Amino acid sequence: MLEYSANPRVNCFLSERVSTLNDAINSAKEKSQDDSHIAVCLKDNGDLIGELFFLKEEPDTYSVGWNFNQNYEGKGYASESAEALLHYLFTQKEARRIYAYVEDNNYRSQKLCEKLGMRKEGCFLEFISFTNYDDGTPKYENTLQYALLKKEWLKTMNI
């Protein structure tokens, strides 16, 4: 966890930045108590390589996200685990709609959303600020929203 949380590549994870092994251990313990955070580990050795998370919006909509160690990019781990998360939310949690916010310069997450069958619904200009410019003023980011309805997902799964 320390490997990918010490220097977040995406600004939305700046608030979760950890700088010591102790911080990472405490963060992992905290997240392990929260069913909406899911660790992604390698099968062969159990190494933590990333995490998935979701947030329910009543009555049946879920926001999803992920954070992965860049050393494991391009190997299919993110798509395999995110696909399992969508399956879980649609089949076990009875989600009707799932969406994800992605910064406009986070091309890997955009590609992942598209691979998952999510459609780009729009771009929120200067939507949110996670960091500041050198002069202290907020740096607002453009944010894309991707979404998928259960009925769309069922079609792609041929169910």
UniProtKB/TrEMBL annotation:
Record protein name field: N-acetyltransferase
Organism: Paenibacillus lentus
Cross-referenced SUPFAM superfamilies: Acyl-CoA N-acyltransferases (Nat) (SSF55729)
Keywords, alphabetical: Transferase
Domain N-acetyltransferase: residue ranges: 1-140
Pfam families: Acetyltransf_3
GO MF: acyltransferase activity, transferring groups other than amino-acyl groups
The keyword Transferase is assigned to this record: yes
Record-linked PROSITE patterns: GNAT (PS51186)
